[in-house]
Amino acid sequence: MTRIILALFLIVALVGCTLDEDIDSGDDQGEGGTTGDGFRVVRIVDGDTIEVERDGVIYDVRYVGVNTPERDEVCYEDALQANAVWVEGREVRLERDQSDTDRFDRLLRYIYVDDVFVNEALVRDGWAEAVLYEPDDRHFDDFRVLEFEAAQSGLGCHPSGIFDDNNDER
Questions:
Q1: Is residue 14 situated within a structural domain?
Q2: 43 catalytic, yes or no?
Q3: Cα separation of 52 and 66, whole Å?
């Protein structure tokens, strides 16, 4: 009887581990690991949020370390279109920093299309601002430099003043 209980316990433990792999099954690359390839973008929600699908399951994904204008703000459509240029209909790789989800149960991830780091590209081109969402800070310093350079060059949304709130923490 003890062997049966032990076997059942091991089966339950293994099933629990494989359920976690539904989202976190990629090659581990650095702190936080990756969520792996095989996610197809099915909807662009806004400049820093997408919906992806894998194995018939849809996940909401919020880009880590960046912020773009909201629906009722200036430059919203431009940031949304800039995001779409990079990811619409594409297969993406998702990489986690420290946090798994936000308060809205969206996955918090860095987004890659082939060898393009999309979060970084949006900041570099001026469509997003660098924002620190503790504890997810792996690329924050790099994003701040890119944001400064984009602002100095008047790229993307910067001429509108939308990012001039002097607040880079949320």
A1: no
A2: no
A3: 18
